[in-house]
Design brief:
The complex is a heterodimer of chains A (178) and B (183).
Chain A: E1 3-8, E2 11-18, H1 20-34, H2 39-48, H3 62-65, E3 77-79, E4 89-91, E5 94-95, E6 99-100, H4 112-128, E7 132-140, E8 143-154, E9 163-176
Antiparallel strand pairs in A: 1-2, 2-7, 3-4, 3-9, 5-6, 7-8, 8-9
Chain B: E1 8-14, E2 17-24, H1 39-49, E3 51-52, E4 55-56, H2 69-72, E5 75-79, E6 89-94, E7 99-104, H3 111-127, E8 131-139, E9 142-154, E10 160-169
Antiparallel strand pairs in B: 1-2, 2-8, 3-4, 5-6, 5-10, 6-7, 8-9, 9-10
The chains are: A alpha+beta (178), B alpha+beta (183).
Chain lengths: 178, 183
């Protein structure tokens, strides 16, 4: 799978695309070891249980209500209707790094390199029409974090993918870069 | 060169394909000239001279004028008017053969090449700044090492309608991030 590394003045990161099989094995092991529910597994199972991927069913949001990971909103999502990936729009995005980005274009992310790689990954999910998972290890503006992220596309036979839900699980919480 | 920071290093491995890229400030183009002005230097200097606002207006920037036929082979442009970057048109012109070839970005066969070029063009279009890079690539078993500068131009409404790409093949391929300062 793809392995990308980038080092620049305000950020550095490694992004490895991983198979869904590998992601699920990791998440099952996490659940067994911690007794907690994996938000990534919840999202993926919700996506699987909604084979028609009809966004009106809200099927994706149901498992989240039972998740032990409590948040005030449903899964964040990306409006990928635009033809240009930099113009995709973030929704319900309560980001740790840059604060609330809801309603912003991907290109408006304050750190360009982060915007670019996110746009690339959203575009992959849109055009491959399948879940896309990454292991991400990054330092942005001196803050290090490590996490797994899963993107799942909402398919439509008539319009293609216009919406992508995503979730992540932090492996190493944000901390001053070593 | 000492003390001049490199802006970014990127490495990507995807299947058998590899891509290594170092991005530099365009201010370093002049300093990277080794023996006489290269096509990159000439194209960038002309771009700076023709700026009207932040970038030149399409039609007033025409690097073909002062490049000889060999140098023109190192120049192409991409029409970036379309909303979908996959529909951008890559245009290369041969004065020697008096032919112009158009190729949609989406018709590039290598998926990694297509993805990288798309996002370099989008970066150039979004930031409206030259993108100066040293690149090592291995696509479909074909190796290449080159410097490249992407130069955006605009229409009268300010929209970036073209991105010129000027490249300069150099060195041998060694599969490590290219360090222009060592050349």
């Amino acid at each position: 799978m793809d392995l990308t590394t980038e080092v620049c003045a305000e950020a550095s990161h490694t992004r490895e695309r991983i198979t869904i099989d590998r992601l699920m094995r990791t998440e099952i092991a996490f659940e067994e070891a911690s007794g907690k529910r994996s938000p990534l597994k919840s999202l993926y199972l919700a996506w699987l249980s909604n084979p028609k991927n009809d966004p009106d069913t809200n099927a994706l949001e149901r498992p989240y209500l039972h998740s032990t990971v409590r948040r005030s909103s449903s899964f964040p999502w990306i409006d990928v209707t635009s033809e240009c990936p930099l113009d995709y729009v973030m929704h319900d995005h309560k980001g740790v790094t840059f604060g609330d980005q809801s309603g912003n274009r991907v290109a408006e992310c304050p750190v360009w390199t982060h915007a670019r790689w996110c746009a690339i990954e959203y575009e992959q999910c849109k055009y491959e029409e399948c879940p896309v998972a990454h292991y991400i290890d990054q330092t942005i503006r001196g803050v290090y974090r490590e996490y797994l992220r899963l993107l799942v596309p909402i398919l439509s036979e008539t319009t293609g993918v216009q919406k992508i839900f995503y979730s992540y699980r932090v492996l190493t919480p944000p901390q001053a870069a070593p | 060169m000492i003390g001049k920071p490199k802006e970014a290093h990127i490495s990507i491995k995807s299947g058998d394909d590899e891509w290594y890229c170092s991005s530099y400030s365009p201010d370093l183009i002049a300093e990277h000239e080794c023996a006489g002005p290269t096509v990159i230097f000439k194209a960038y200097r002309h771009w700076r001279e023709q700026r009207d606002g932040d970038i030149p207006i399409d039609g007033r920037y025409n690097p073909h004028i002062f490049l000889d036929q060999d140098e023109q082979r190192q120049l192409l442009h991409v029409e970036t008017k379309r909303a979908n970057p996959q529909n951008y048109l890559i245009v290369s012109h041969s004065a020697e053969a008096q032919t112009t070839v158009h190729c949609a970005l989406q018709s590039l066969l290598n998926p990694l090449h297509r993805r990288i070029l798309q996002f370099d063009l989008l970066e150039c279009k979004e930031t409206r700044k030259p993108l100066y890079q040293g690149i090592n690539q291995l696509f479909d078993g074909v190796e290449a090492t080159y410097r490249r500068v992407l130069l955006p131009v605009r229409d009268i409404n300010g929209l970036v309608t073209k991105v010129y790409s000027v490249y300069d093949l150099i060195g041998s391929f060694n599969m490590t991030p290219l360090d222009l300062e060592s050349i």
